[in-house]
Amino acid sequence: MSTNCNNKHMVLAVIIGTFVIIAVQRWLLQSEFAKTSMLRKENANFTITNVQRRKFARTFIIRKEQPKSSITKRQNKTKHAIKVILFYTTWFGSPNWLGIAQGTELNVSCGEQTCRFTHNRDELQRSDAVMFHGRDLPSETVLKEVEKTKPPKQRWVYHLLESPHHAGPDPALFNGMFNWTMTYRVDSDFFEPYGCFAPLTTDEVDPKPKNYAEGKDKLVAWGVSHCGTLRDQFVEKLMKYIKVDIFGSCANKFNQHELCPRGSQKCNQKLQRYKFYLSFENSFCIDYITEKYWINALSHNIIPVVMGGASYEDERLAIPGSFINVVDFESVEALAKYLVYLNANDTAYNEYFWWKKEFKVVWSLDSWPCMVCKALNNDSLPAKVYDNLGDFWGVAKNCGRNVDKIRKLIAGDM
Fold this sequence. Notes:
Elements: H1 2-44, E1 48-53, E2 59-64, H2 70-79, E3 83-87, E4 105-110, E5 113-118, E6 129-133, H3 140-147, E7 155-160, E8 180-183, E9 190-191, E10 196-199, E11 218-223, H4 230-238, E12 244-247, H5 265-271, E13 274-280, H6 291-294, E14 303-307, E15 324-325, H7 332-343, H8 346-350, E16 359-362, H9 368-376, H10 389-392, H11 395-398, H12 403-412
Parallel strand pairs: 3-5, 3-6, 6-7, 7-8, 8-9, 11-12, 11-13, 13-14, 14-15
Antiparallel strand pairs: 1-2, 4-5, 10-16
């Protein structure tokens, strides 16, 4: 009896020991699996960052991420229905808005997202965004009526590339109506400058040195069609020291009559003979740099002499080292002497074209449809409204910078 009892105890001990060993093994396996799983997650989130520093501190960061699974891609594609964007107004009286193909119904693909653009106002209530051009806005009375039936999540976009001096209807009349802005100002929801610059591709790099002064036998050109501004007085003073060839509807004011039709091949060929172009803006407003800098000068390989209210040194607005700013001189005469110096010194002249070895001018207006489309598909963006559009796009808080400096320069050459 005692022996049998001992045998039973021994058997029971063996069974218990076996269970303990199995339990310990399972715990060890789970712990090891957890560690392995954590390592896999860390590897999946690993990113490689390559920072390239340019001469003027522009930094390009390239990140290479682990590709997402096909399941995640399918989920992203089906997450949102196609967003509808309505053009409520025309664009300077035309149904064809700049930067988007013509047509009453357009599907625009932006990566994994697609948005449909329409001019059909019958779709106002189902539109996710509504585009308004500032120069073509209806009266505030009309818009207030439209606003009464505006869906809660619908975004109204105020678009304008003209300066506040030429904005059309007073923006203050529309305070509290618009959710997003699309302008040339850097702090807009959609930043749409007249131009910008991007790195050259490998195929675009030309290793051969180029003399940008070669073939240029004329000094200064200026195209102007808006007369009677402060810049006219500056040019009158400048012409006391150097020759300035003036084209456009204001040329007669300066007793000049040579034609150069804007955008024509004949005019383009004529401009390429000049070393300098007066990229003088008609408004001294924040961030306002127009085609006078990007197209009239840079696209013709001419050094722009700039005048305006923008911070030209801001690389988001202009190419550093590509221009001559009139406010950097003590007098109009000093500016004239510097232009004469560059005219006689090809080495110094070519320094203003250093950027051509690394960068090119590009037109950002082609990208705005996708910027709006992607924003509509971004659920993380907070609700927003411009309670004081008059402050954001009014003359008082936007314009007047550098005006006093220009007047002092003119007065100093009396």
